[in-house]
Structures are given as structure tokens and as C-alpha cells.
Design a protein that fits this description.
The protein is α+β, with helices and mostly antiparallel strands and 112 residues long. The protein has helices at 65-71, 80-87, 92-102; strands at residues 9-17, 20-28, 34-41, 53-60, 108-111. The chain has one domain (9-111). The longest helix is centred in the last third of the chain and has 11 residues, at 92-102. The protein starts with 8 loop residues before the first strand and ends with a strand.
Length: 112
Amino acid sequence: MNGTHGTRKVVLREERAGKDSRHLWAYVDEAGNLHIDGQDLGPGTALVSPDGEYEWFKTIAAVDVPRLVSLLGGTQGEDVLDLLERGFSGAGSYELETRLRESDIPLESFSC
């Protein structure tokens, strides 16, 4: 999706397998914080959600976004959404989650 800073949303994952679907997208808010939001729907969520829906939200502070760009192999000043769209969408979205989990970049996380 295109738009101006704060409104552009990049779809990183949009998968369907039977009755299950998995979604992951990213955007940068007006303060420069990166948001990575996910939603899983269907019976595959039973381990974490009795109602068939699981959502999670991760936020990386603006000050840490350049570290993330570097971690993901980008160059200084590169737009994080361009980098994510180019290298970490589709199957690459799972690698993004692994790298975030294994990094020391602070994440604010919430799930429901």
C-alpha cells in the first residue's frame, strides 16, 4: 500500500491454509516508531486463543529503527518499510520474526 509517512502500510504476510489465515503488516507512525502487527485466524490458533483469533503488536522505537535496518542488511538511511517489503515479505516474514526475537533491539509487545 502506498501513502505518506505515517499512513503507508506494508503487507508482509497474507497466507491461507484451509480454515486458517495468517496476516502480518508493518507501518511507521508519525513519531517514527515501527509497528509490526499480526493476526492469525482459524482453528490453528487453538493453543493460544480459544476463540479462533490471535493478534499481536510489536513496536520498535524510532531511535532503534536504524539498528533494525542494519540488522536486516539495509544501508544507513534506507527506508525501513522499503527494506521490509523487499526482503522480508511472504516467506521472508518468518525470518524477520526470528531476527527480531534473537536480537537485543528493544520491543514493546502486546498480544490478545
